[in-house]
Amino acid sequence: MSRDILFLCHRVPFPPDRGDKIRSFNVLKALAGLGRVHLLTFADDDADAAHGDGLAAYCASTTVIVRRRGRAQAALAALATGRPVSLAMFDDRAMRAAADGLFARHRFDAVYAFSGQMAQFVPADGDTRFLMDFVDVDSAKFEGYAAAAGPFWRMAHAREGRLLARFEGAVAARADLSLFVSAAEAALFRVRHPDVAASVVALENGIDLDMFRPDAAFERLLPQDAPSLLFTGQMDYAPNVEAVTGFARTVLPEIRDHFPAARFVIVGRAPVPAVRALAMLPGVTVTGAVPDVRPWLAAADVVVAPLMLARGIQNKVLEAMAMGRAVVASPAAQEGIDAVAGRDLIVAEPAGQAAAVCALLGDATRRDALGHAARARMVERYGWDRVLAPLAGMMGFTA
Questions:
Q1: Against a cut of 0.90, is the pTM above it?
Q2: Number of structural domains in the chain
């Protein structure tokens, strides 16, 4: 029997070149194997909207709506209505009309909403099976921001976290299943919302093992005569900015005391001024956007993920491990990844990261062993086919 599935997404799930798009694209591709997928998605801008054309092979229909509401306008609307800002940013009349039209024209067998903001477009009184992919516990993220912020932002982030927690609980109460990217995130949500604990499950992120593989040949982008440390990520994302700033200013100088030629290379699109300023420091390179992150990973001696605040599963860590790189990660960056510290990657608090990196830079055999173990763990545990195998059952579909 043919099935119709509505996939709601807060950002065009293509190309899969950043954390949220990697997950949404692979989920969409898996859903396309289960039925006819009707995609309803926001785009960040007109250029992002054009990426919807790349999804024709997976979708029976595609509706892309460019999100025009800015943060300032959303903040005013949120204050006026008592809603979270991140929800108000996605409140859109055109999206509501498009969603209502799709529900009027189709009797969907299931609805899959990707990111909590999209729940507002799912009818509250519908009888269609509804899966809410929260990905992370966003309310906890804002609570973490509040704990580290100054007075004004502490108040703003605390408000966002409080209102998001209330919203998340209400959405989970009407969803058939609430999905999270890791067992740790799912467990946290159950603690915060025990009344819906039975319908909270983990659907993990995976990695494209054919794309990210250590035996592929790439142009050498980093000099071989200088130790190279690499960080990858979206560089206008606050936790990434905090991570590279702390590493460049406090950890790297200690490493360079032992390895004076060591370079810290920050790879990722949209670096904010604070990140671009790091390029003025000795041994720091900021690339901005690159067409392919894999050559940079292949050339790195050590990949670092020194995040202080991280939710779910870090794709940057999965990618580095799949490429057979030695990884030094903070406990926050490693949380949610089913890998053995000391065997598959090194986990170190900020105070111990310089020593951990130096130990690896001084021991090529240890680096290679760590990289081989990392790749083996990714093959064993994190291929997309494996991690998304439970999806059909979650959707309520049987063979």
A1: no
A2: 2
